[in-house]
Amino acid sequence: MTTAVIGTGGIGSVIARQLASGGETLRLSSAASESARTLAAGIGRAAVVAVDNRDALRGADAVVLALRFTVLEGVIDEITDSLIDKLVIVPSNPVGLDAQGNVLRLLPEGQSSGEVIAGWLPAGACLAMAFGTLSAGLFESSSSRSPEPAVLFYATDDGRAGEEVERLIRTAGFEPVKAGGIEQSGRLEVGGDLHDLVVGPAEARSLIGGA
Ligand SMILES: NC(=O)c1ccc[n+]([C@@H]2O[C@H](COP(=O)([O-])OP(=O)(O)OC[C@H]3O[C@@H](n4cnc5c(N)ncnc54)[C@H](OP(=O)(O)O)[C@@H]3O)[C@@H](O)[C@H]2O)c1
To answer: In terms of DSSP H, where are the helices of 60-180?
Structure first.
């Protein structure tokens, strides 16, 4: 199967490497293309660099938008037609940096990036919020953990998206656990109770049940 990864920075590059390790074919794009080219060269034959964001989606079964929250809406507008009937996976947290480099929340308390992004997507796109719960370093070091796999939580309102995102989470070396619908996605994001947690399946399920 083929997944497009748009955004090949801190988290996009780790997601791409782990998916490729699990056998996924990738189509990569980034703003200036240099980071996508470097990443593709490191991955090898499983990854190709697309001409642009729209080209990244050609022939792809799913797309990961590994972009900062502030550029997401613009990129979604640019590729909106190509997102119809596609699984759209978003790891973005609603945070940015102020002039002093301090982390700043970009949405009001109680509003999740998942809920806002759902409103930016065209009808027919299948949104899953996933792959953004762990920092890049933790993601890389927790992948393919044994004997007990580490969990990646996800949230979606869409049954088909759920099946496909679970396949990709397993491909990346994790066990998928659904936190709920998109209305639960705040739990996965920075500040949420399921963010930056490395847990096994049993603990993950008890955390979900205990919400
Ligand atoms: N880093 C983490 O540990 C981590 C963990 C979990 C979740 N997240 C979330 O994931 C999101 C991305 O974070 P990040 O740390 O990966 O950011 P980042 O390192 O700044 O990477 C952003 C990527 O987006 C690309 N980009 C920017 N504008 C674009 C456009 N118009 N078209 C295509 N690509 C574009 C950049 O391209 P260039 O490479 O060409 O500049 C870069 O590859 C954020 O919302 C963050 O909250 C990050």
So the answer is: 69-79, 113-120, 136-142, 159-171
